[in-house]
Design brief:
The complex is a heterotrimer of chains A (638), B (157) and C (401). Chain A has 638 residues and is an alpha/beta fold. Helices cover 31% and strands 12% of the residues of chain A. In chain A, the strands form five sheets. In chain A, strands 2-1-5-3-4 form a five-stranded mixed sheet, with helices on both faces. A four-stranded parallel sheet of chain A has the order 11-10-13-14, sandwiched between helices. Chain B is of the alpha+beta class and 157 residues long. In chain B, helix 2 runs antiparallel to helix 3 and helix 3 packs across helix 4. The two termini of chain B are 27 Å apart. In chain B, strands 2-1-3-4 form a four-stranded mixed sheet, covered by helices on one side. Chain C is an alpha/beta fold and 401 residues long. Chain C folds into three domains: 201 residues, Rossmann fold (3-Layer(aba) Sandwich); 73 residues, Roll (Ubiquitin-like (UB roll)), CATH 3.10.20.600; 85 residues, NADH-ubiquinone oxidoreductase 51kDa subunit, iron-sulphur binding domain (de novo design (two linked rop proteins)), CATH 1.20.1440.230. In chain C, a hairpin with a 5-residue loop joins strand 5 and strand 6. In chain C, helix 1 packs parallel to helix 5. The chains are: A alpha/beta (638), B alpha+beta (157), C alpha/beta (401).
Chain lengths: 638, 157, 401
């Protein structure tokens, strides 16, 4: 019997289990097939599609996505396998015998063309009025196969109402091609389980539980479905019009904060190779668009480290020294709004484990309309605060009713990388050719620690760089070569590390009101974990529930999206494994190029504490502005 | 829905699970039990099944919406399924349907006002040698004529 | 009421058989001997696809796995087919005995009958029958005293989905999923129910196995033709005097069959149900065989008064509704074919568009994911080809201009 968890996804959608020999050089480790009359040797079990890729034979696909398990439903990738009565879907056919494959026979070409014709006949709307114009897989296929008219007619009226209920994700099922990538993303990759195929035959559609609006179900707004949708059926809730309006209004003071991940990916929207950072070009472009101030969210990422790191120390002190049972350990990070909502829905009993520290976006929002407004004599009412984020869930986060601690809506709009790229284009700007410029002060200087928040493990690494130094009084470089905390880096779904604290120093001034000394941590081992993707989060949460090894952790970083924020639901499409790795490299490279790489060394942050939060981190005032609370949502759908 | 009703449904589902098991392969038998008893699978029942089998509610809904004999909206106490496939069609299905519709004052695809009958067309019932045929609940009736069909329904409580 | 009205005569399936005899005989044989007899018989699957049963069983028997399953496919949904209904109601011993034989041969402990939801009315009697078998130690532990041979059969009720007759959709359904066909390979013999090696056999195939075990493969292949051995149960319906289930040897001509069942003025014979092909008068000397007009058993007869376009429309409506909806060619293709029929009805078609739709049908045959979409265009193409005079040229009472 398969274990229940293995059966969650329909077995038909699971990849084929073909035991690949560990060493393909052994006899039977490879198989030689004929690919368009050419002999080719591949590891046993390779799919025809992969074999073709390696041999530079292009096969069109639509339902295939390398992050997801096999579906084999669009049938575009069909090829002829000699001896088989029907064509075979190359994405789903594992090669285990010396077959003969033909990828471009009249039958194959006709079938592909027919399939494209059929999909287009039911695809409502026009390309020029679609946000995926020029970046749509269906459109590309139509171009590739020279579609110049509707062979089987064209749907004239919409069949479905567009679901605009969510702050984050908009669903327009008239553009859906039923590839089920979103279903596989939502159920297998993220294990959120909001979207599934519903109905059958010509009535089949992708829908939610009882076809309810997305805002009423357990959607965590991660937007991973958007990134994998081949067409315009899924998109983020786009605030561009409102932002342009604010920019064009001379009375409004429009500021934008920019998260670390968009700068490492936005170049892709301008045809640039993934893996190049356009931080300084982007700041110039933002000014040219008309933003009055351009700030760096990394600044509040540093602030988050101060608050969340202090909170961690306090939690551990209360739990371990004062034996206060009401204090929950491990502490969970709270900067990923997708993860926060996931926990609120699926593990509401653990919301007290979430750090009460707001995410960098929301800390920024609260400071802009208080500290910054005061300092610059601007009426907070006139400030429009925009957050450039790699994320669709940030749009929901800034609309949480509790996020009004400044007395106003702390952050007015969450803007995704894709949407900003669009604004830049609308302004007639070609980003890669922009002159370079720096962020505005006082929120313009930030550490590399804040920057690496964009990659999975980044928050943990930033926290370790700070907490280690605050406790030991030594440089983190003494413990980790070149300050790189490699045990928490990389794309493994769940990472676990034990960090012994062998020596302690004096308590730094900023923490003196909170802990008397460090004796209680001397000789202790800090146990941490880093988790990305909610499917992995689920595994760790189940382990914690069962009292397993993760329940003994002190601090766990959770990010809703695979790869962390750099793979967020607001990032350029496509996003895949290779692209995520390149974006991460861009972020880590930029970190290494900086001189300031530790949050607690950020002088602007320290000045903020001096001027505005004199009682230090986790004090009363900081709690009012920089911390928040959560809602037990549960799973039940009313 | 009242709390008591909810508890009763949960108990029923738990009973079904005892009978069929608590893994996903028990899903359809469990849903059939609920369907049989309540003539539909309510929002609440779907979510309870999902909770007890540890799957997502939308997966339950997805399955319910796939199968013709499972439904989410309440139906009449008796479900009439008249075969609409070719042999029964050629042997006079349309006249039978009309007669039933007139008699019960209810269209196919709908439920009578007194919730006694739901009328549905079904695909091939496997009675092609004895058509036209219909199934009422779990009884099959063959060689129907309009008169006979109406007579059969009038004998049902 | 559901019994077969026709006299049950037949050389193979309806021949003499004593309850439990196949089990007794099998337990006295080696597993290889049983597989050998099956191979000798050249029995092919009776569901329609015609895969050699011995090969299927050998693959499962040879597989190494914690569990193996034998599934009897009683999701008889093909329009015009009702032979499984007759077998299960009147000859359950043939089916269940063969399942026990299968359990023994394959090394499976679990047998499942996937009974279509429409046949719920027979579930109780089948369960009673199984209970009686348990009492007689034909099921359960150490069957008929064979130490260590444990096998039991349960009934899984479908819920109204034609596509679940496709073996991998059936397995999905048993696993609590939508009845959506899987990608193949791997086939169920390798990765079936719960990922385990699984043999899925048609009701009639199993019935034949019981006879083969008792009477030998050599006996079986005396019947039928060289490539299509044995007999076939045919479900005859439509315009004839004596509809019902008939057992006839493979190789019987359509015209012989029509005479036998009292069909007069026959214009068309649909062989193989809605997913089969429609033959016109000029083809009535074709024979029923895997190598000629293959069928899972459905024969529907239409006389001169029938409107073939209406017949075709009924079939296509069926497929539009019963397609599982996962793959593009079947989900949208069937809708396009149906729309084409409606265009003809309204007289708003062009011949070039009808040609395009036939080409589309040919794509569906090769590019659909499972047998449903691969066979649904058969009737579209064959009816429009074979009855074009009636449909397009207003000949023989056709009314579509």
């Amino acid at each position: 019997m398969h274990k229940k968890e293995e059966l969650r996804a329909p077995v038909s959608q699971k990849p084929h289990v073909v035991e690949k020999p560990e060493n393909i050089d052994t006899i039977g480790g490879t198989v030689t097939l004929e690919l368009n009359e050419k002999k080719v040797t591949v590891p046993l079990g390779t799919t025809i599609l992969d074999a073709c890729k390696e041999n530079n034979i292009h096969i069109p696909t639509l339902c295939h996505h390398e992050d997801l398990c096999v579906a084999g439903v669009c049938r575009l990738c069909v090829v002829e396998v000699e001896g088989m009565r029907t064509l075979q879907a190359s994405c789903a056919y594992p090669i285990t015998s010396p077959i003969k494959v033909h990828t471009s026979t009249p039958m194959v070409r006709q079938a592909r063309k027919h399939i494209i014709d059929l999909l287009i006949s039911e695809h409502y709307g026009e390309c020029y009025s679609c946000f995926r114009n020029n970046n749509c897989e269906l459109q590309s296929l139509a171009k590739e196969y020279g579609v110049d008219h509707y062979n089987f007619g064209h749907i004239e009226k919409p069949r479905y109402e567009v679901d605009k209920s969510s702050y984050s994700v908009i669903r327009d099922m008239d553009k859906c091609v039923l590839c089920k990538r979103c279903v596989r993303t939502c159920i297998d990759l993220q294990e959120v389980g909001v979207l599934e195929a519903v109905g059958r035959g010509d009535q089949t559609r992708i829908s939610t539980f009882l076809d309810k609006p997305l805002a009423d179900v357990v959607c965590i707004n991660c937007g991973q479905c958007i990134n994998r949708c081949p067409t315009g059926a899924l998109r983020a809730n786009d605030p561009r019009d409102e932002i342009w309006e604010a920019i064009d209004d001379p009375k409004k003071h429009v500021i934008i904060q920019t998260a670390p991940s968009p700068r490492a990916a936005i170049g892709e929207e301008f045809g640039q190779e993934p893996g190049l950072s356009y931080t300084k070009e982007m700041t110039t472009a933002l000014r040219r668009i008309g933003f009055d101030k351009v700030f760096d969210t990394n600044f509040t990422a540093d602030l988050t480290i101060m608050e969340e790191g202090t909170e961690l120390i306090l939690r551990l002190y209360k739990a371990l020294v004062e034996k206060d049972n009401s204090v929950k350990v491990p502490q969970f990070t709270s900067c990923s709004p997708g993860w926060v909502k996931y926990l609120e829905h699926f593990y509401p009993e653990y919301i007290d484990n979430l750090s009460s520290a707001k995410s960098p976006q929301q800390m920024f929002g609260a400071l802009i309309k208080t500290y910054y407004a005061e300092k610059n004599g601007i009426n907070p009412e006139d400030i429009v605060s925009v957050a450039l984020m790699p994320c669709s869930a940030k749009k929901f986060e800034c609309n949480r009713p509790e996020m009004h601690d400044s007395g106003f809506k702390d952050v007015d709009y969450g803007l995704t990388t894709r949407e900003l790229a669009q604004m830049i284009k609308e302004a007639g700007i070609f980003l890669p050719e922009m002159p370079k410029s720096n962020f505005d002060n006082p929120f313009g200087e930030a550490s590399g620690a804040g920057l690496i928040f964009g990659a999975t493990g980044g928050v943990m690494e930033a926290a370790i760089r700070t907490v280690y130094e605050l406790i030991t009084g030594k440089n983190v470089e003494d413990f980790f070569e070149n300050m790189n905390v490699t045990p928490v880096r990389g794309f493994e779904g769940v990472k676990y590390a034990e960090l012994p604290i062998t020596e302690v120093g004096p308590v730094p001034d900023i923490l003196k009101p909170l802990v008397p000394n460090w004796d209680w941590v001397k000789g202790a081992t800090l146990k941490v974990a880093v988790v990305h993707g909610t499917a992995n989060a689920k595994k760790v949460m189940e382990d914690i529930k069962a009292g397993g090894k993760f329940s003994e952790c002190h601090f766990i970083e959770f990010m809703a999206c695979p790869g962390g924020c750099l793979g967020g639901g607001g990032q350029p499409i496509p996003t895949n494994k290779e692209i995520r790795a390149k974006r991460a490299q861009a972020i880590y490279n930029e970190d290494e190029s900086l001189t300031l790489r530790k949050s607690h060394m950020n002088e602007n942050v320290l000045r903020l504490y001096e001027e505005f939060l004199p009682e230090g981190p986790c004090s009363h005032k900081s709690h009012k502005l920089l911390h928040t609370h959560y809602t037990e949502r549960g799973k039940y759908i009313a | 829905m009242l709390v008591l009703e909810k508890n009763a449904i949960t108990e029923e589902i738990e009973e079904s699970i005892k009978l069929h098991g608590n893994n996903r392969s028990a899903l359809i038998p469990i849903l059939q039990d609920i369907q049989r008893k309540h003539s539909h699978i309510s929002d609440f029942a779907q979510q309870e099944v999902a909770r007890l089998l540890d799957i997502h509610p939308v997966e339950v809904y997805s399955v319910v919406s796939f199968y013709a004999f499972l439904n989410t909206k309440p139906k009449g106490r008796n479900i009439v399924r008249l075969c609409q496939t070719i042999t029964c069609d050629l042997q006079g299905k349309a006249a039978i349907a009309k007669a039933i519709e007139r008699e019960l004052n209810c269209k196919f695809g709908e439920t009578t006002q007194d919730k006694k009958f739901s009328l549905e067309f079904a695909n091939c019932l496997g009675m092609c040698d004895q058509g036209p045929a219909m199934i009422v609940n779990d009884k099959v009736y063959s060689h129907l004529t309009p008169e006979k069909a109406v007579q059969i329904l009038s004998n049902i409580k | 009421m559901t019994t077969n009205k026709q006299k049950r005569e037949g050389a193979v399936i309806f021949s003499e058989y004593e309850r439990g005899s196949a089990i007794k005989k099998a337990l006295s044989m080696g597993r290889d001997d049983i597989l050998f007899e099956l191979r000798e018989s050249k029995l092919k699957g009776r569901g329609g696809a015609g895969f050699p049963t011995s090969t299927k069983w050998m693959l499962v028997a040879a597989a190494k796995a914690e569990e193996k399953y034998l599934i009897c496919n009683a999701d008889e949904g093909e329009p015009g087919t009702f032979k499984d209904r007759v077998l299960l109601l009147e000859y359950p011993e043939l089916v269940f005995d063969a399942m026990v034989v299968g359990g023994y041969t394959l090394g499976a402990k679990h047998g499942v009958v996937y009974l279509r939801g429409e046949y719920e009315y027979m579930k109780k009697s089948l369960e009673d029958y199984l209970e009686a078998m348990r009492k007689d130690n034909l099921l359960g532990n150490n069957i008929l005293g064979k130490e260590g041979f444990n096998f039991d059969i349960s009934i899984f009720l479908g819920s109204g989905a034609y596509v679940c007759g496709e073996e991998t959709a059936l397995i999905e359904s048993m696993e609590g999923q939508r009845g959506e066909a899987r990608n193949k390979p791997p086939y169920p013999v390798n990765t079936g129910f719960m990922g385990m090696p699984t043999a899925v056999n048609n009701v009639e195939t199993l019935a034949a196995v019981s006879h083969i075990v008792v009477k030998s493969g050599a006996w079986f292949k005396q019947h039928g033709t060289d490539k299509s051995t044995g007999s076939k149960l045919l479900s005859i319906s439509g315009d004839c005097k004596k509809p019902g289930v008939y057992e006839l040897p493979w190789g019987t001509k359509i015209s012989e069959l029509l005479e036998l069942v009292g069909a007069e003025n026959t214009k068309a014979v649909q062989v193989g149900g809605a997913s089969g092909i429609c033959l016109s008068r000029s083809e009535f000397d074709r024979t029923l065989a895997y190598e000629d007009a293959a069928t899972g058993g459905s024969i529907m007869i239409f006389n001169e008064n029938r409107d073939m376009l209406k017949v075709l429309k009924n079939f296509m409506e069926f497929f539009v509704e019963e397609s599982c909806g996962q793959c593009t060619p079947c989900r949208i293709g069937n809708v396009k074919l149906l729309e084409g029929i409606e265009m003809i009805e309204r007289g708003e078609y062009t011949f070039s568009y009808i040609k395009k739709l036939k080409d589309l049908g040919n794509t569906m045959k090769v590019a659909s994911k499972c047998g449903l979409g691969q066979s649904s265009p058969n009737s579209f193409i064959s009816i429009l080809d074979n009855f074009s005079d009636e449909i397009f040229n207003n000949v023989n009472g056709g009314s579509h201009a």
